[in-house]
Amino acid sequence: MTAHWSPDYRSILGLAEACDVPTRFSCRSGVCHVCVTGVVAGTTTYVQRPLEPPADGSVLICSAAPETDVVLDL
């Protein structure tokens, strides 16, 4: 699936919800790590810094936005 980013979504999770893409999430603030998702390609940035970042190659979609085109393992 291809979707176009807008800062109005605030996070990758917001974009996924707007596109009816099923995702895992709970806290929406980068604390619980339920939304940790693999990054296949591209780069992201955190709009809300998580307390503890996920492992390399993963992103917390509830608090991140794309910096480039990204491919995620949802």
TrEMBL record:
Alphabetical list of Pfam families matching this protein: Fer2
GO MF annotation terms: iron-sulfur cluster binding
Residues annotated as signal peptide: none
Entries under Gene3D superfamilies matching the protein: 3.10.20.30
InterPro entries in the record: 2Fe-2S_ferredoxin-like_sf, 2Fe-2S_ferredoxin-type, Benzoxazolinone_Detox_Enz, Beta-grasp_dom_sf
Domain of life: Bacteria
Domain 2Fe-2S ferredoxin-type: 10-66
Record-linked PANTHER family: PROTEIN YIIM
Protein name: 2Fe-2S iron-sulfur cluster binding domain protein
Organism, as annotated: Mycobacterium intracellulare 1956
Lineage: Bacteria, Bacillati, Actinomycetota, Actinomycetes, Mycobacteriales
